């Protein structure tokens, strides 16, 4: 059985003061979680009076289903469904840099508040140069991004992302965007997307294996949901793109 490796991120008193530093430590000391036989919990905790402004790229780490990376907030660092003054926020203002880019399979992002304010995306799972399959994006607030809030895209290889219980708002393009061929499965459910300048949730290309369920999308400028051929169930929208009325 894999051994737990716990890394703590705090404004003060933890192993690291930024999420990026914790990832760099993993890359240098545990490039293969499989051969080290560990799974990693990166716990963000404590009171935060400043933002974490260091962009994060999760790459160059070998994982599998039992040797995974779990990044989560706890206690006072965790939002309660809205932004507050003392919880953790990853706010990146670097030009053309995503706030959080995942280039590794088997990663969980749970309970963070994230914004990319200078021309790019909040959370990104790109198909290239590697395959970030079996990743979970849940319970996050993604807001005010200068492009799309949560983006999973590309070919046949971004397989089985779970995107659920997120709040995504005030992004310059889409709240959530997913693309891929009919071989790509995704589950996008229980998200709230509002006030985004393009779509709340947009699925492009051959998306017959994508399930959109129980999402609430309102007041998105171009449209609330663009499902193409995705399977949709009980999505509430302010326009006619959903299959449940917004009242």
3D structure, described in words:
The structure is a single chain. With 247 residues, this protein is mainly beta. Helices cover 6% and strands 37% of the residues. The protein has a single domain, classed as Single-stranded right-handed beta-helix, Pectin lyase-like (Pectate Lyase C-like). The relative contact order is 0.09.
Number of strands: 24
What's the mean pLDDT score?
92
Oligomer: single chain
Radius of gyration: 17 Å
Q: What about the largest sheet? A: 9 strands, parallel
What is the CATH architecture annotation?
3 Solenoid
Q: Which percent range describes the beta-strand content?
A: 35-45%
Distance between the termini: 49 Å
Instruction: Specify the overall morphology.
Output: globular
CATH class: Mainly Beta
Instruction: Give the fraction of residues assigned to helices.
Output: under 10%
Number of domains: 1
Structural category: mainly beta
The fourth-level CATH homologous superfamily is Single-stranded right-handed beta-helix, Pectin lyase-like
Q: Spans of 5+ residues with little confidence (pLDDT < 50)?
A: none
Output the CATH topology.
Answer: Pectate Lyase C-like
- One letter per element, helices H and strands E, the order comes to EHHEEEEEEEEEEEEEEEEEEEEEEE
- The strand line-up of the biggest sheet is 1-2-4-7-10-13-16-19-22
Helical region count? 2
């Amino acid at each position: 059985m894999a051994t737990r490796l716990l890394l703590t991120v705090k404004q003060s008193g933890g192993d690291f003061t930024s999420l990026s530093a914790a990832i760099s430590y993993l890359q240098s000391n545990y490039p293969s979680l499989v051969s080290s036989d560990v799974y990693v919990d990166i716990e963000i905790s404590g009171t935060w009076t400043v933002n974490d402004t260091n962009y994060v790229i999760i790459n160059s780490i070998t994982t599998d289903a039992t040797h995974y990376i779990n990044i989560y907030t706890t206690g006072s660092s965790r939002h309660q469904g809205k932004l507050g003054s003392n919880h953790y926020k990853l706010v990146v203002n670097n030009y053309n840099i995503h706030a959080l880019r995942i280039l590794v399979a088997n990663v969980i992002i749970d309970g963070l508040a994230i914004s990319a304010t200078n021309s790019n995306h909040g959370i990104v799972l790109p198909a290239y140069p590697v395959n970030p399959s079996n990743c979970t994006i849940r319970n996050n607030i993604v807001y005010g991004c200068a492009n799309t809030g949560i983006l999973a895209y590309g070919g046949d290889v971004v397989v089985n992302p779970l995107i659920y219980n997120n709040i995504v708002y005030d992004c310059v393009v889409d709240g959530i965007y997913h693309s891929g061929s009919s071989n790509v499965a995704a589950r996008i459910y229980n998200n709230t997307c509002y006030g985004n300048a393009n779509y709340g949730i947009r699925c492009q290309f051959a998306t017959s294996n994508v399930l959109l369920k129980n999402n609430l999308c309102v007041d998105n400028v171009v449209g609330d949901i663009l499902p193409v051929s995705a399977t949709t169930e009980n999505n509430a929208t302010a326009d006619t793109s959903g299959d449940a009325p917004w009242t």
